[in-house]
TrEMBL record, chain A:
<dbReference type="InterPro" id="IPR012910">
    <property type="entry name" value="Plug_dom"/>
</dbReference>
<dbReference type="InterPro" id="IPR008969">
    <property type="entry name" value="CarboxyPept-like_regulatory"/>
</dbReference>
<dbReference type="GO" id="GO:0009279">
    <property type="term" value="C:cell outer membrane"/>
</dbReference>
<dbReference type="InterPro" id="IPR039426">
    <property type="entry name" value="TonB-dep_rcpt-like"/>
</dbReference>
<dbReference type="Pfam" id="PF07715">
    <property type="entry name" value="Plug"/>
</dbReference>
<keyword id="KW-0472">Membrane</keyword>
<dbReference type="GO" id="GO:0044718">
    <property type="term" value="P:siderophore transmembrane transport"/>
</dbReference>
<dbReference type="InterPro" id="IPR037066">
    <property type="entry name" value="Plug_dom_sf"/>
</dbReference>
<feature type="signal peptide">
    <location>
        <begin position="1"/>
        <end position="23"/>
    </location>
</feature>
UniProtKB/TrEMBL annotation, chain B:
<keyword id="KW-0732">Signal</keyword>
<feature type="signal peptide">
    <location>
        <begin position="1"/>
        <end position="27"/>
    </location>
</feature>
<protein>
    <recommendedName>
        <fullName>Type 1 periplasmic binding fold superfamily protein</fullName>
    </recommendedName>
</protein>
Amino acid sequence: MLFRLAAALLWAGLCLGVVYPTAAQSTCTLPLAGRVTDHESGEGLAGATVVLLPGQEATQTDSEGHFHFHVCAGTYRVQVHFIGYQPEEAELRVTGAAVRNFALHPEAIRLQGAVVRGSRVEAPTPQASGTLSGQALQSTRGQVLGEALQKIAGVTAIQTGPSVFKPMIHGLHSNRVAIMNNGVRQEGQQWGQEHGPEIDPFVASELTVVKGAAGVRYGSDAVGGVVLVQPRPLRDSAGTGAELNLVGMSNNGLGAASASVEGNLRRLPALSWWVQGSIKQAGNTRTPDYWLANTAFQERNFSAALGWRKERYGLEAFYSQFNSRLGILSAAVVGNQTDLQAAISRGRPATDGQFSYAIDRPYQQLRHDLAKLTGFWKTGNGGRLTATVANQQDFRDEFDVVRGGSTAGRRNLPQLSYLNYTTTADLVWEHPHWGPFSGSVGLSGTYQRNRYAPGSRQFIPFYTNQVGGAFLIERWQQRRLLLEAGLRLDRRDLQTRRLTRTVVDDTLRYGVEQQQFRYWTPAASLGAVYDASTHLSLRADAGLVRRAPAANERLAQGVHNAIYEEGYDVSRPDGAAPLSPETSYNLGLTATLHDNPRLNGELTVYQNHIDGYIYQVVAGSFQTIQGLFPLWRTQQTDAVFRGADLLLTYAPAPRWLLSGRAAVVRARNLTLNDYLVFVPADRFEASLRREWTRQPTARLQRPFAQLSLTAVRRQDRTPGAEYDLQAAPAGYQLFGAEVGATVRLGNVPLELSLAGTNLLNARYREYLNRFRYYAQDQGRNLTLRLRAPLEFGRRSAR
Amino acid sequence: MKKPLFRPFLAALLLAAPLLTTSCKNDDDNPTPDDENELITTVRYTLTPAGGGTPVTVEYKDLDGAGGTAPTIGTLTLAANTTYTGAVTFLDESKSPADNITAEVNEESDEHLVVYVPTPANLLSITRTDRDRNNLEVGLSTRLVTTTAATGTLKINLQHQPGIKNGQPNLGSADAEVTFPVTVR
């Protein structure tokens, strides 16, 4: 309201100050008039600035987009500017009354990446990326992070039951996907396929996935891509606001609540803060035929930020804590290969189970703390300097079923208990624009210590990982073309201490094996963005990333989830070289159709060739006193991942939107000339959405309804039968629907929605679900979501 | 103008301080050979002839757990046409003194089932003689009967079936599963 008033005053002022005096000074009376409209919608644009050259006479368009001048005969140039649109200019000769209309193009996505006040979103541009924010993000509330990200084409998840989703980008996951939580690389036990990211998605106001290698900017873990979890920026206007989110689900009785309060002091405009907390409690998940016993889970999280921000410098402190307890499907508890085969041939839990919120062994108990301090300093002509220091602690306790002889059971201790401490520091200097050049240089360091608690089982040895590196990214932009080149070099030092056991003369002897691995890991990238027209952008990027093997790939050892895992360096032959770094050569091409009135879309094709790709492979059986186990050994091979993501939206009529998404990945083991296991099956999604417009005074605003269909083909490109416990399951189709609206309750715009997934209660098993051997996936689910933004006190003029 | 600009720089230096201090921390702590919290190292089957005589014992022992040194596996030698009383023992001998796990299995007998599988099936017959509080067999105590002389194997499997035990063997997860060569003569 105030903004409109200010705009009206400004407009009136300009009319008085500019138009009136010209009329007074000029004796010429030839009318030059026109209308400024949006090129796409044809609607008039109010408040656009129209400048007449020579003479610098200016006016603003009225509420319908009309403007007029009185001029003498002659040749003039007319310039039209409007925020959010590309400026236009026209030359015209005025001999009599002249009319010139302007249809402005909405501004294309700026190549420099979005800069949001209060926080800087650093999305590298030449790669394809997808973002969830606003309503798209709202419709994922209540889901865990990895589940929500699957809304982005090309992103899937390795799933372990209904509560653990590990993000997978273009067929790569775990050690090859970097997750940036509020600008800090998430560090913990991210290597494990059954370890979901320890991040509360309620903190995020935006989730972005960079699809494709981004090793220069984010470090060598980003071979497959990057997930950027961006919290709300600190409030930049005086006042106090709050937001309440409530979610309820029918299938598993999930209830979730998240509340946040933010403020900015009128007396100290530089000081802003927010605090946020969320709780979530879910019971057993139901499939069409039975309950999944012991799949209940819960979360308790909070976060807070405090910032001091001036024009030239700023400082921000952030703290978040994530706590979760996740039950593991009891039907997935199997001892050895015989049990595994029995469970697989049964194909379903032994009992039908029932609904319960109780969580028994086996379960995971997780906690992740992140403390971050960041400061920036705009150095005027010297660019901008940003420093960030973050400390993370990750606690992962896995309480397995209590077996005979278990001291853990007697003392109620976890069998596996990992502790990870990580400190990261980054210093980035963005140099000022030097002609067409812009760019940044940075230094980054990581210090990491991984331990397991005394009395718990050694699965991953003690290790200390130190990384120091420098990078340089330079951009050159001229009109429609942007070129980017990047270089990075890291020094990695991994030191491990592994407890060994040997039997000498019928007695058990312990020892400690120490190893050190040091590597230089370079990364390089070249990218281009070309705006072929107002509605078509083309991008290309090529890169090289080298990733050093992680501690688990070298030295994991033990029985875990009915398999015996062994890192390559545990049993490598004497004299053989240890596991060496893998090198990824990647290429991505993206064409984007955007800002069209009807048809928009994006097509990405990519190839990622990885020399020395580190993966786990079944290498026979392994005899223990618990029986025979399938032996999974880490190996190296050459692999190639190719694929395409397609996104299309079409508006057949105003307020109707038809969308389609498709993602295909092909992954080959080049050494064995075979397929790779656990690669996403071809996936297609289609939806039809209808929105209605309502009178601004109506109580119900922005109602919408949406129907969707997800179709997943059977994965028939799988390696030999010995590489998987069971053949890939059949393809499936799932129907979904969502309705929602904003209801005005006093001053509060209450957003309500009801969504249904798997509406036909289809029986299906997802190939990427690691529990597909034991049970079906989730049946029908209805989700009710409510979001209430609140504003306290009087709003002040900005 | 220079003075206020200098302060954030100092702040940046301060920001880097925690890193420097943590990096210098001593990382020389070693993993301690604390008690491995769930290890069965030994399965022992003791058979006493019903008519009296010297008991026969067979043992599977893997002191260092999965991997490392190979286990030692004994051979069961039995007399033909004889009835034996059997008792199975599960031990963790990596600890000193050794931990007797049989007692725990007995305490939670309604969650455990010991399964005996002779191969070929007519090599010998084994009957479980003990029952849990739900009147389901447990298998810590057995009666073994041999007939004619033969050779084969005997698999002994301690199956953990919390909440799902119904007398069937192919449920739950194996706490131990060992196979002995058998000679009846």
